[in-house]
Structures are given as structure tokens and as C-alpha cells.
Write a structure and sequence with these properties.
There is one protein chain. With 729 residues, the chain is of the alpha/beta class. The protein has four domains: 54 residues, Phosphorylase Kinase, domain 1, CATH 3.30.200.210; 172 residues, Rossmann fold; 192 residues, Dimethylsulfoxide Reductase, domain 2 (3-Layer(aba) Sandwich); 126 residues, Barwin-like endoglucanases, CATH 2.40.40. 32% of the residues lie in helices and 16% in strands. It is built from 26 helices and 26 strands. The protein has a seven-stranded mixed beta sheet, sandwiched between helices. A six-stranded mixed barrel has the order 21-25-22-24-23-26. A hairpin with a 5-residue loop joins strand 2 and strand 3. The radius of gyration is 25 Å and the shape is globular. Bound molecules: iron/sulfur cluster. The site of iron/sulfur cluster has 14 residues, from helix 1 and helix 6.
């Protein structure tokens, strides 16, 4: 008898007979990877691959992108519009006309009875840009409520606010190519290998070719921190203290770029005065980083030929989110690191098209970075759309995080949720549940009818998934790319673009404003609105065909532009979008206003993402291989803390805050310090049952990552039962 390898059957990979490859862009994170989806000769989806010629991903995809084609046929997809029956206990299937007529009438009834702003709309960062533009037309131009926002308030609002305060406009100034030019790279609260794996791969490749210091600021030993040259395990919420202290060192050792500061900035004296209050020997006690390391990092950054900073939710999701962003911008401005290769301040965006909503949805203003507060902007858009400018409010209404408290107080009576799932994503879920139950009318529009929030809706609109539609995304580095409709919409689902167009027909202004039938025609409108020598967000030179040819083009890309890939960087001339043309140096003092650990609640609770899942798992929770690797809500706990509490590996525990409790499985790991736990935020009825979500005063973004909890033991069978019940949706 023969034993060993010779007797084993070789592993075979099932042959996938692809007849056609179709071009599209990934609809999860903001990296913007280009995907080719393979169809067989019967037009059935069989596989997908990264596009080898796309500059962003160069043939690579992460696990989510690789399996994204499975979404077309995934479980839980909505097939038909649904309306509650007359007892409001069961859904019944209805036709589109009935569902849209009923919804339009309910919106009008609520607005007539309680006022225009009593009906709110909250969308997402995951529609296509033409859909955002059309939704903006519908909400700002036809429905006329001022309480309109996107769930991007939960992820990118602080970046937007910080950019506007520093540079006079939103718009990340750098690009991935900067990794190949930088001499010092600093990441604040950003775990690229898990959050943006392909951006991480670009960074790693650049670092391998031309070594430069990688400095990671994060309270956890994240995967990125494990690869860092210097890891700064900062006390949660104290990034501004660290940055002020770094600038203190830079100013006192005269390492700043005087020439750049004099020519291109304003506010230097006040910034220097405030930073003087943060000498490293004092700051170390607040931010938890020893004084010598603060000095070393400050010198490294300031002396580098080109230095760049990136950040993600570790900065944005904080009561100091907007200040944190402004302060990262300060650091780059005083060292002359804006608008040059390898020298930039680059927010790494969360959702695939959070940039598209910032640019075109009219949530926080009017299309193309225009302001509701500026009369000329209101007039220009009103003229273009053909309506009275008085129809527009003169300042922005409520953000998403203010809309829910306004439901509690009775100010908001009706709500339309588009591709967002607050029953998992919002902090302090017990309050969100009560708020949704209090609404007189709730419409949920989503690809999945089993999305948790749909339990509370009166009407459900089934939307098509991303590549059953056509339109664009803008990624983190301002690159506009194309999503092609690889398949027709499933069953009776419809593209969001179609749903908004149909709704517009039911409103008076919908007869005056043109709502094109094709996304490409909406794109042409956006191009016209983007033209102008003073407009930074200029896409007038783009066409769908050119975008596909170039595998994405970065704005600004003006009509007649010769640079076929668009402009990689903003502010290369040192002229900013402020009135004076100078960037604002914004002095940021520090007020410790977080909920912090106490004797009753001795642990920091931190939350974030894992590589296999996206947001509230509406999609990745349905993909076998994503779910298989990360099926269960868990918490990371330091083994010393676990020993003290008698918690073994894989045991269930109850995490309790002043708001509620979460039941999770313990994973003992040194990735978290002794006084912190970490829980992924993707799971329904989990970490956001305990989070507090104090708001940043500028951006209204919640501080998801800073609250205090205690750990209690729980009977293992009871825990399993609770988990089953809470995961039932
Ligand atoms: Fe999609 Fe982001 Fe993964 Fe690229 S890195 S495949 S864009 S999820």
C-alpha cells in the first residue's frame, strides 16, 4: 500500500468559462478598485477579477471585491414594493405606482399639517453620483424640506468640515501616487490593511521600493501599527494634544517652513500662541505618548523633504473630529506639505461614493460645492433648474444625528431612508428604535427587504444593486470612475435613479425641473454646472467613454485638458478657496469632554471594522465566504484584564454601559491595552447598544470610539440565545 502525497487527488479549481468580461467599479469602500465581472455565454455571472490596467488597483481586489458578484443573487433582496396592510402589522406586495403615489401623498399630508421641514430624508454614501444629484434635485427642488442629510455624517463629516475650515473648500488635496514620493508617512486612526486593503498594498509597495518612516497613531496595535516603524498608542480622543505638542516642538526648534507660511497661510500667531501651551513634558500626561517620542516624531515630520498624513475614523469619529482634521492640516501647512508630491493631508474616505454625495447630492448645500448660504449660488442653481430661488432655504438644516432627536421631540414626523440602516449604524440604539417607532410615516429604500430598519417602515422600495445600474463614483483621491449595468435589475427592483425620477413627477416643481431619463444625461448637467475658471470641482472634460478608457479620471478635469488622467493634486500653486486665497491656520485648544472610564465602567470601548465586512453587513453578511471568516460579534480584550475578570478565550460576556448592553465573544489579544476593549461595529444590536455618540460641534459626527463600559460574566447558554434573537434580522 502506498501512503502519502501520491495517493492524494490534486486540488482542482472549477473551470469558469467566461464568455464576456464587463467593466465596473467596486461599491464597497472608497479605494475605487476597478472590477471586471465575468459572464458565461448564457449571460450568467460566473466570477470577477481586478482590472489589470486600472491605476488604482492594478489587478488586485480584497475579499469583498472578489466576491462582490455574488450580490446579484444574494438572499434577502427586495423583489417588489411593499406597503403595510390596513392593520399595520403585515406587509403586502403592491405595484410601483401605488407605492410611489401613496408615499408622495403622505409626504404632502405631513408637510401640509406640520410644515415643510417636518419630513426628513437621509441617504447614504453608496448611491451613484448621478443618483445623488437627482435626489438633491428632488429634495431641494421639489419636496422642499431642509432636513436632508446623508449617513456620511457618521463617517466623513469631520473631514469635510475640517477641509472647509482650513482650505475654504472640501476636496482631498492628495492622491495614492504621493506614497511613491513621500519621505515620512503618518497615519492617524487608520487601519489600512483591514479598512482599505488595496490602498495599503499601494503603500506597502511604495515603502518596499523606497523606505521611509511609517508612523501610526492608534490606541490599538492594529495591523497597520504592527507594520509601523513607530507606533504611538495614544489615549483615545487626545490627537489634538499630540499634534499641538508636535507643532510646539517644530516652532520652538524653528523647523517650520517660514516661506510657505508667509506666502500661503493666515493665523500663524494665534496657532503658535495656543501650541505654546503644549510642551511635550506636559502633553505626554494627557495624550499618553512620552515626551521624547513626541519630539522625535515632530523632528522626523518637519525635516522630511516631503511628509504626508492620512486619517480615517480614529480622527473623524470624535467630539474633536473637525478640530483634529484642521490640526492635521495645520501640521502640513506649517511644514509646507500641501500640494506637492508626497506632501499632503489626505482623508481616506469610508464609503465608495461618500465623495460623490459630498460633491453633488445637495445634502449640506447645493450641487458642485455650492453653498445654500450664498445668494449667488442659490440663484445660479434655481436658474439652471428653472425654479424660484426662494424655494431654497438660506442655510443648511439638520444633520442625520440631529434628525433622530427631532423625531423624539415631535419636530420630525416622517422620514425617507435611502440605502442606510440606522438600526445598526447609529450610536445609542435603544433611542433610535424608539424614535423610529414614533414616526407617523417611514419609507425605507434599500436593495434588501430584510434590512433591520425595515421592521419599522410603512413603505418599502426595492432598489437594484450597484452593477444593475449605470453611473459614477468618486474615490478618495477624487478619481471619477464608471459603474456599468452588468445585469438588468433583478425582479421588480428598480435603480434608485428611476425611483427619484418617478417621485419627482408627483410634485409641482417636478413639472418645471428637467429630470433626464438616462444617468448619462444627468452627468452632462453636472458637467455644465461644474464649468468655470474659479470652480475647483470641474468635471467638464469628462465623458463616460473617456472615464472608461482611462479607468478613472481625477478632478479637476477641465474641458480641453491635456492631462488624460486628470489632476493628481489640489493647491499646487498654494492658492486656496478662501476669500484671501490663503489657507487658515486654525488654533485648536483641547477640552476633555469625552465619557472616560470610571470605577463603575473601567474600560474604554473602541469600535471599528474588520476586513471581511462592510458597514452593517446588509451585503457582506449574505456572502458565504465573508460571513464564514467573521460570523460572530466579538470583543478584543487584553489577556491581563481577561485573567483578572476570569474570562477565557471564546467565552461570551456582557458589555454594559449607561445606555445598554451587548453580548459578545471574548478574544484575548495584546492588540488592545489593559483598559480598552474593541468591538467591530458591523453587527446588528451589538456595540451601538452601548455607544454614547456625543457629537462634534462643527460636523455633528458622533464620537463612536470613546465611551466607558464594564464587563460582566453571563451564562453561556443565555448568551447564545440572546445572540440568536438579536441576530434574527
Ligand atoms: Fe472594493 Fe475597497 Fe476591496 Fe477595493 S479595497 S475591492 S474598493 S472593498
Amino acid at each position: 500500500m502506498i501512503f502519502g502525497r501520491k495517493q492524494r487527488k490534486p486540488i482542482t479549481i472549477p473551470s469558469k468559462s467566461v464568455d464576456t468580461w464587463k467593466y465596473t467599479t467596486c461599491n464597497y469602500c472608497s479605494t475605487g478598485c476597478v472590477i471586471e465581472i465575468g459572464l458565461d455565454k448564457d449571460n450568467k455571472i460566473v466570477t470577477s477579477r481586478g482590472h489589470a490596467d486600472a491605476d488604482v488597483n492594478r489587478g488586485k481586489l480584497c475579499i469583498k471585491g472578489l466576491l462582490e458578484h455574488e450580490l446579484f443573487q444574494s438572499a434577502g433582496r427586495g423583489t417588489d414594493p411593499l406597503m403595510r396592510n390596513k392593520h399595520y402589522d403585515e406587509f403586502e406586495t403592491v405595484g410601483w405606482d401605488k407605492a410611489i403615489d401613496h408615499t408622495a401623498q403622505k409626504i404632502k399630508d405631513i408637510q401640509n399639517k406640520y410644515g415643510k421641514d417636518s419630513f426628513a430624508v437621509v441617504s447614504t454614501g453608496q448611491l451613484l453620483t448621478e443618483e445623488f444629484y437627482t435626489l438633491g434635485k428632488l429634495v431641494r427642488g421639489c419636496i422642499g424640506t431642509n432636513n436632508y442629510d446623508g449617513n456620511t455624517t457618521l463617517c466623513m463629516a469631520s473631514a469635510v468640515s475640517g477641509y472647509k475650515r482650513s482650505f475654504g473648500s472640501d476636496g482631498p488635496p492628495g492622491c495614492y501616487e504621493d506614497f511613491s514620493h513621500t519621505d515620512c508617512f503618518m497615519a492617524f486612526g487608520s487601519n489600512l490593511p483591514e479598512q482599505h486593503p488595496i490602498i495599503y498594498w499601494r503603500l506597502k509597495e511604495a515603502k518596499e521600493k523606497r523606505d521611509f518612516p511609517l508612523i501610526v497613531v492608534d490606541p490599538r496595535v492594529t495591523m497597520l501599527a504592527q507594520f509601523a516603524d513607530i507606533h504611538l498608542p495614544i489615549t483615545p480622543g487626545t490627537d489634538c494634544v499630540l499634534i499641538n505638542s508636535m507643532m510646539h516642538v517644530i516652532f520652538s526648534e524653528e523647523l517650520e517652513d517660514r516661506d510657505y507660511i508667509d506666502k500661503h497661510t493666515q493665523g500663524y500667531d494665534e496657532l503658535k500662541r495656543v501650541c505654546a501651551k503644549f510642551p511635550p513634558e506636559i502633553a505626554q500626561h494627557e495624550c499618553g505618548i512620552d515626551e521624547d517620542t513626541i519630539r522625535q516624531v515632530a523632528r522626523l515630520y518637519a525635516k522630511a523633504g516631503a511628509a504626508m498624513s492620512i486619517w480615517t475614523m480614529g480622527i473623524n469619529q470624535s467630539t474633536h473630529g473637525s478640530d483634529g482634521v484642521a490640526n492635521i492640516n495645520n501640521l502640513n501647512l506649517v511644514t509646507g506639505n500641501i500640494g506637492k508630491p508626497g506632501g499632503t493631508s489626505l482623508s481616506i474616505t469610508g464609503q465608495c461614493n461618500a465623495m460623490g454625495t459630498r460633491e453633488w447630492s445637495s445634502c449640506s448645500g447645493l450641487p458642485g460645492y455650492r453653498y445654500l448660504e450664498k445668494e449667488a449660488d442659490r440663484q445660479e442653481i434655481a436658474d439652471y433648474w428653472g425654479i424660484d430661488p426662494e424655494f431654497f432655504p438660506k442655510k443648511r438644516g439638520m444633520a442625520q444625528t440631529d434628525i433622530f432627536p427631532a423625531i423624539e421631540t415631535g419636530e420630525i414626523k416622517g422620514l425617507w431612508l435611502v440605502a442606510t440602516n440606522p438600526m445598526t449604524s447609529m450610536p445609542n440604539l435603544p433611542r433610535i428604535r424608539k424614535a423610529l417607532q414614533k414616526l407617523e410615516f417611514l419609507v425605507v429604500q434599500d436593495c434588501y427587504s430584510d434590512v433591520e430598519t425595515n421592521q419599522y417602515s410603512h413603505v418599502y422600495f426595492p432598489a437594484s444593486v450597484w452593477a444593475e445600474k449605470e453611473g459614477c463614483h468618486t474615490n478618495t483621491e477624487r478619481r471619477v470612475n464608471l459603474i456599468c449595468n452588468v445585469l438588468e435589475p433583478m425582479a421588480n427592483s428598480k435603480p434608485d435613479f428611476w425611483i427619484f425620477n418617478e417621485m419627482a413627477k408627483r410634485f409641482d416643481n417636478g413639472q418645471k425641473i428637467k429630470f433626464p431619463d438616462k444617468p448619462e444625461d444627468a452627468f452632462e448637467e453636472m458637467k455644465e454646472l461644474s464649468k468655470g475658471k474659479d470652480r475647483m470641482l470641474d468635471i467638464s472634460g469628462m465623458t463616460y467613454q473617456k472615464i472608461k478608457q482611462q479607468k478613472g479620471i481625477q478632478w479637476p478635469y477641465r474641458e480641453g485638458s491635456e492631462n488624460e488622467q486628470g489632476e493628481p493634486r489640489l493647491y499646487t500653486d498654494g492658492i486656496f478657496q478662501t476669500e484671501s486665497g490663503r489657507a487658515n491656520l486654525i488654533a485648536v485648544d483641547f477640552v476633555d469632554n469625552n465619557e472616560t472610564p470610571s470605577s463603575d465602567y473601567p474600560f474604554w470601548c473602541n469600535s471599528g471594522r474588520v476586513v471581511e465586512h462592510f458597514h452593517t453587513r446588509t451585503r457582506t453578511g449574505k456572502i458565504g465566504n465573508c460571513n464564514k471568516f467573521s460570523p460572530t460579534p466579538y470583543m478584543e480584550i487584553n489577556p491581563d484584564a481577561a485573567d483578572e475578570l476570569g474570562i477565557g478565550q471564546s467565552e461570551y460576556v456582557r458589555v454594559v454601559s449607561k445606555r445598554g448592553d451587548a453580548v459578545v465573544m471574548a478574544q484575548r489579544t495584546h492588540r488592545v491595552p489593559r483598559n480598552m476593549i474593541f468591538i467591530p461595529f458591523h453587527y446588528h444590536d451589538c456595540v451601538n447598544r452601548v455607544t454614547l455618540g456625543l457629537l462634534d460641534p462643527y460636523s455633528r459626527q458622533p464620537a463612536f470610539k470613546q465611551c466607558a463600559v464594564r464587563i460582566e460574566s453571563i451564562d453561556q447558554q443565555e448568551a447564545a440565545q440572546i445572540n440568536l434573537e438579536r441576530r434574527a434580522f
